[in-house]
Write a structure and sequence with these properties.
Elements: H1 3-23, H2 28-55, E1 57-61, E2 67-71
Antiparallel strand pairs: 1-2
Helix pairs in contact: 1-2
Length: 77
C-alpha cells in the first residue's frame, strides 16, 4: 500500500470514528476507545503529511535572480 493510500485509509477511518462519536449512541467506554483511536489516527495523518512536505520541492531564486527548484529540506522556514 502506498503512502497516499495509507493516508487516505487513515483519513477514512478517522472520519468513520467521528461519525460514530457524533451519533451519540455509543456507551461511554466505547466512546473513549473511539476517541483514543481517533487521536492515534490523527497523529498518524499528521506524521504522513509532514513526511510528504519534506519531499516537496520548493521554489527558490538563485544568485542571478532566476527561479529554480531544489529539494525541500526539513528545518527550513
Amino acid at each position: 500500500m502506498s503512502d497516499s493510500e495509507n493516508f487516505e485509509q487513515s483519513l477514512k477511518d478517522l472520519e468513520a470514528l467521528v461519525e460514530r462519536l457524533e451519533s451519540g449512541d455509543l456507551p461511554l467506554e466505547e466512546s473513549l476507545a473511539c476517541f483514543e483511536q481517533g487521536v492515534a489516527l490523527a497523529a498518524r495523518c499528521q506524521k504522513q503529511l509532514q513526511q510528504a512536505e519534506a519531499r516537496i520541492e520548493q521554489l527558490v531564486r538563485d544568485r542571478d535572480g532566476q527561479l529554480k527548484t531544489e529539494p525541500f529540506e526539513q528545518g527550513e522556514a
